[in-house]
Write a structure and sequence with these properties.
Layout: H1 10-19, E1 29-32, E2 37-39, E3 53-56, H2 59-64, E4 68-69, H3 80-100, H4 108-115, H5 119-130, H6 134-150, H7 156-162, H8 168-172, H9 175-179, H10 183-187, E5 194-202, E6 205-211, E7 216-222, H11 225-235, E8 240-242, H12 246-260, H13 276-286, E9 294-295, H14 296-302, H15 309-317, E10 330-331, H16 344-356
């Protein structure tokens, strides 16, 4: 009997069909020879036999092949998830507009009414797709506006109110999480903040490690050591940068040692600023053991937000501390390596070394 060899990439597509995986909708469609119809991966119909299934990159390709759209999953129409994502995107734009104007953000009830949903349903849909609640999203955007405004406003107080905070106390309650330092120090480009740093060499190129008194604030790879230092200076132009510290260089040696022999592990105290959602993602990444991998979808599920896959990917891309927050251990659902802030080849090498260890 002749064995039919199927492309390896078809394996994850078939798995998506078996699981009725909504996250695969829009990435491909499949047709069934015995019924003459084509469906989206999440179609709730009874699972077809594998030998009768053909995968298609587009809906048009399935129809050109002679298949008609399924009446259950309606593959010609936007998926329910797609419609919900559009509603959430519109709500985000409304929140962005209010915050950019320095106004109070729209109430949950008003956002829900615009979307045509009840407040409870809208709140759940928003959290599923954005990865955060509307309130948390607004807080994150307000924090971004605050960080931008601190360096251009006449005073910290002016920046606080321009960002839309109703009182200075509301901001100072979370200033450490928003900025990673006091507001006055951030406004002055890190003035008064002492940041120790050192640049080392490893098999992956140059590596910079920097830390405040609270913990490591940056671990960066690069090809040019000077460019790494300049990037740190640009981030904190008025901070006191202290190099050539023998004690601190031992920490850099520990980080370099992990690159070369990841089996030893790396557990560092961190001082990184980010939104509430980013911190949740980063904490989930730190829980992935060396030698193991997780998909963006798995991380989204682990933090209780299964539909926030894109938001998880963005949080990974915003990671300021390579290795200490191991975003290199996150891959696509099909196991393929996706983008990495410090280069996919570095990501591949780190994963191979961890697997070997």
């Amino acid at each position: 009997m002749t064995r039919i060899e199927r492309p390896a990439e078809d394996d994850w597509r078939w798995q998506a069909i078996e699981l009725h995986d909504k996250s695969a909708d829009g990435r491909f469609w499949y047709s069934v020879a015995t019924t003459g119809v084509y469906c989206r991966p999440s179609c709730p119909s009874r699972r077809p036999l594998r030998r009768n299934v053909t995968f298609h990159a587009t809906r048009e390709a399935a129809e050109t092949a002679g298949f008609r759209p399924c009446r259950r999953c309606r593959p010609r129409e936007d998926s329910p998830d797609g419609r919900q994502a559009a509603l959430v995107a519109a709500a985000c734009k409304a929140l962005d507009a209010a915050i950019d104007a320095g106004d109070a953000e729209p109430r949950l009830a008003d956002l829900a009414a615009t979307a045509g949903l009840s407040p409870f349903h809208f709140h759940r849909v928003f959290r599923q797709h954005a990865g955060v609640t509307p309130k948390q999203y607004a807080a994150g955007r307000r924090a971004e506006r605050m960080r931008d405004g601190l360096r251009s406003s006449a005073s910290v107080t002016e920046a606080i109110y321009d960002a839309g905070y109703s009182s200075s106390s509301r901001f100072y309650e979370r200033s450490d999480e928003v900025l990673g330092m006091t507001a006055s120090a951030w406004r002055k480009g890190g003035r008064g903040v002492r940041i120790r740093f050192a640049v080392g060499e490893c098999s992956l190129g140059a590596i910079l490690v920097a830390a405040t008194e609270r913990g490591v604030c940056a671990i960066e790879f690069g090809d040019d050591p000077q460019a790494l230092v300049e990037s740190l200076q640009d981030r904190f132009p008025d901070a006191v940068l202290v190099g050539a510290d023998p004690e601190f260089e031992r920490l850099v040696a520990e980080v370099v040692g992990f690159v070369e022999a990841p089996g030893r592990g790396l557990d560092l105290k961190l001082d990184v600023a980010g939104t509430a959602f980013q911190h949740r993602v980063w904490q989930a990444l730190r829980a992935i053991p060396p030698g193991e991998r997780a998909s963006y979808a798995e991380i989204a599920r682990r933090i209780g937000m299964p539909k926030a896959v894109r938001a998880v990917a963005q949080a990974c891309a915003s990671n300021p501390a390579a290795l200490a927050i191991p975003c290199h251990r996150v891959v696509r659902t099909d196991g393929a390596l996706s983008g990495y802030r410090w280069g996919v080849e570095r990501k591949r090498t780190l994963l191979e070394r961890e697997a070997a260890a």
